[in-house]
Amino acid sequence: MSAPADPARGSAAGGAPVLSTAGLQIAFSGRSGRAAARAVDGVDLEIGAGEIVALVGESGCGKSTLARALLGLVRPTAGAVSFHGRGLVYRPRDLKAFRRRVQLVLQDPTGALNPRHTVYDAVAEGRRIHTGSTADERDHVAEALSRAGLRPPERFFLRYPHELSGGQRQRVAIAGALILQPEVIVADEPVASLDASVRGEILQLLLRLRDDYGLAALVVTHDLGLAWNIADRAAVMYLGRVVETGTVEEVLAAPRHPYTRALLSVLPESSAGEQQILAGEPPDPTRIPAGCRFHVRCPVLASGAAQAAGVADRCRSEDPGMLGGSPGVAQVACHWAHAPEPEPAEWAGPG
Amino acid sequence: MSRAALVWTRRRRALAGYARAFAGNRGGMAGLAVLALIGLAALTAPLFVDDAALSHTGAEGGRFQPPGLDHPLGTDAFGRSVLDLVVWGARISLTVGFLAAFASVALGTLIGVVAGHYGGWPGNVLMRVTDWFAVLPALVMAVALAAVMSRSTLTIIIAIGVTAWPTTARVVRAQTLAVEARPFIERARALGGGHAHVMLRHVLPNVMPVVLAQTTLLVAEAILMEATLAFLGLGDAGTISWGGIIEEARNAGAVSSGIWWYMIPPGVAIAVVALSFTMCGRALEGVLNPRQRERP
Fold this sequence. Notes:
Largest sheet of chain B: none
Largest sheet of chain A: 7 strands, mixed
Low-confidence stretches of chain A: 1-14, 344-351
Family (chain B): Belongs to the binding-protein-dependent transport system permease family.
Radius of gyration of chain A: 21 Å
Shape of chain A: globular
Low-confidence stretches of chain B: none
Subcellular location (chain B): Cell membrane; Membrane
Order of helices and strands of chain A: EEEHEEHEHHHHEHEHEEHHHHHEH
Distance between the termini of chain B: 33 Å
Strand content of chain B: under 5%
Helix content of chain A: 25-40%
GO biological process, one term (chain B): transmembrane transport
Structural class of chain A: alpha/beta
Shape of chain B: globular
Number of helices of chain B: 12
Radius of gyration of chain B: 23 Å
CATH class of the domain at 82-279 in chain B: Mainly Alpha
CATH topology of the domain at 82-279 in chain B: MetI-like fold
Main location (chain B): membrane
Helix content of chain B: over 70%
Oligomer: heterodimer
CATH architecture of the domain at 82-279 in chain B: Orthogonal Bundle
Order of helices and strands of chain B: HHHHHHHHHHHH
Number of helices of chain A: 14
Largest interface: A-B, 38 and 27 residues
Structural class of chain B: mainly alpha
Strand content of chain A: 15-25%
Membrane topology (chain B): Multi-pass membrane protein
Number of strands of chain B: 0
CATH superfamily of the domain at 82-279 in chain B: MetI-like
Distance between the termini of chain A: 52 Å
């Protein structure tokens, strides 16, 4: 594992991305004539070395599917996943080699650990798959456990997952990923099933791994506060597409997309004016609206602000398009945010 | 502590834990004790049962003697001690029961896990084949097989093994589907594990309780089936089995003449062994599931 050239937060823009997607689309075919669900509908995303990217969105927006596609667990319908600039090859041998360098951490550590395996077996599993049982396996397991914060590791070797607390289980799951010394960790809601006191510890662990070992991470979450705390960059996803991306400060402190603003406005400590509860039906990936996919629920369009800016027709008929994945610039897929008048920064909630 | 020592410690602790948990289950211990007793009797039978005492001509007892001091369970039509016959019959009944159950459980588990893991059209084809075997009347099929092949104990084992596996395959496939849906399977795949890894390291250990329960039930079923086939006269005439004893008793008119000691002992033996296997299986199922074991 190599340390990043520049360990400063949010400055991975210069280097080539470690893991990236280009025009990624994943559709699940509908049963008996029903429309296919376009869970991921065109996503460009880049994760640089030593960078933590938060993928934010409500449930059902396709963020977990995207995370699985990054590991090759789901095959894209169109587009590609690239690792160090080379497209992923979906042959068992290539996938196996790839998965040695990119690892997944799941939301629920209770389910993610086989109840019949001891902690030792669970952590050693990845290494056994790739290198078989070696004489120094025990040292590697001990090291991975202590790197994940379980010390002294020997005390945990023979425990079963059900004998551990939720936080310890998640540390075991992380240790199981770390033993392969991956370059990227894809974490799908890594702390959503843990209680608040443990959350901080696990997030701290991710940050420390980034700082100490240059580990890059994509953290999938519905929790904006979490994104703010650990991520360098954030991508907001709505109905299968990234609608706003930029550094965490840009996206969360000065949101430009109405959807991001609505998400932020309902946080208790929000400064984005009054709360906006999004109206309209929840997004359905089998029926993605024409035009901007958010327009049916968009508070800006509903309030007439889009009309005033002269973009209302484009909102209804013209797709704002996909955002490029390059990490350098903040981007937003919104006609109204790109409209010259009125200045979006002065916006303080609809009517 | 070296790695080998660590593995050994882990295994020994696991085994000791299982043994302790099993010992805490009264039904399981009772079943195990009965099975151990019967197994011991079957294994040591040649030491105290004389070959001559089992031959049709060489037995020293009188015809149809009721239970008494000489012959605790009476004698049969040829003057043989029924107790000797039942003890000797345990050898064939247990052998056939075990081998047939293992054969059918192995086949059923293989087909169930493969069908459940791969799914799609290979899984569907396998399950249609399973359905086809499941709807064949097992007894008729076994009778046909036993009739076509040479009359031997092996034929009986094959006949039972071939007809009894569909239940196991269905149960194992259902359990496989349930296990495959759990997140640790996704984690194993994300770690780079292939089909073999997922099936052997994750699915198989997690379907083992079901397989074990199924095995114990099938041992009981195979013993019953063997008794049925022997009772129908399809067994190896040269061997003594519990079903065969009952058949001989029926042929000798034991039912109409009230010679109960000829029929009841082998019947009770069949029932006791089947029950013991079932009790052991239930206890084992609880022991092998660590989460179930945690309950007080």
